[in-house]
Amino acid sequence: MKTAIVILNWNGQKLLEQFLPSVVNFSSELATIYIADNASTDSSIQYIKEFFPAIKIIENAVNGGYAKGYNDALQSIDADIYCLLNSDVEVTKNWLEPILDVFKSEEKTAIVQPKLLDFKDKTKFEYAGAAGGFLDLYGYPYCRGRVFNNLETDTGQFNNTRAIFWASGACLFIRSEVYHKIEGLDEDYFAHQEEIDLCWRAQNIGHQVKYVGSSTVFHVGGATLQETNPQKTYLNFRNSLLNVVKNVPKKWFLFVIFSRLVLDGMAGIKFLIELRPIHTFAILKAHISFYKNFFKFLGKRRKLQKKQDYNLHTSIVWQYFILGRKKFKDLK
Questions:
Q1: Full DSSP string of 179-195
Q2: Which of 70, 150, 156, 313 is most buried when burial is the number of CB atoms within 10 A of its CB?
Q3: What is the mean pLDDT of residues 210-220?
Q4: By three-state DSSP, how is residue 32 classified?
Q5: Which residues on neighbouring strands pair with residue 89, listed in sequence order?
Q6: Which pLDDT value is given to residue 313?
Q7: Structural domains of the chain ordered from first start
């Protein structure tokens, strides 16, 4: 089973210096490592050529963000399994074996995520993916080990292997055949939550997404956009709405769209109360972009063979903010 670890880079020489050695040390025997460079203007490429000459380099012509960057790079990589790995991830010894074993033994499993812990506090789960992702009824994402900003301590409670709804783009394994069959990542997202759409579409054609808790990596998170950056707020709110339009089953569609507009408005008011109006404006900007793209994404919706029914009959907003349920095990 040919495996390609593909690290997307944009002006990230310092991250490569810090994290690339662990990938090389713990992966080289089982995988080929690639750097997909998004038209960097720093000395990233020269650094790799000098210190890691065995690593293959793919130079993208433009910085098209996460989605286009990977779509462009993966066109020229021959492998059975792609690992889309952030440049700010430290991997661990034997991290690949459990994941490749799942691919070998489970034909229907198309996407896999390892356990994501916080590089800055290695006892805690990491925000971007923790122990596997889910969606609530309104399309809001959350994870085992992370609900909104509440990060659980890793005590081995999520060491199992189980089905999840979405895998984190910080470290996402996918069968190459499936990736190309569903036409890769949606480049209209640019960055953030496009992995949720990717996993949704894979499930729409009958594949499964799995979390493998016996494989662990450590993720810095926010290395490209910090949580306080309004651009991150904009992309998360806009792309979450686009996911809803594109993928939510017909029976939930109008209800979820209307509810999301109300709930996003409440989030905007919350930012105002917290004296963070720049994030309120980011939500407004996200909604304006959403309206502009609404009919375009309706067209994409019609191309999908099936809408995977994700209904968990829960609201994360209600359970977290009103009922005070902060941990995954407490959610009903």
A1: HHHTTSS-GGG-SSSHH
A2: 70
A3: 98
A4: strand
A5: 219
A6: 65
A7: 3-219 (3.90.550.10), 230-330 (no CATH)
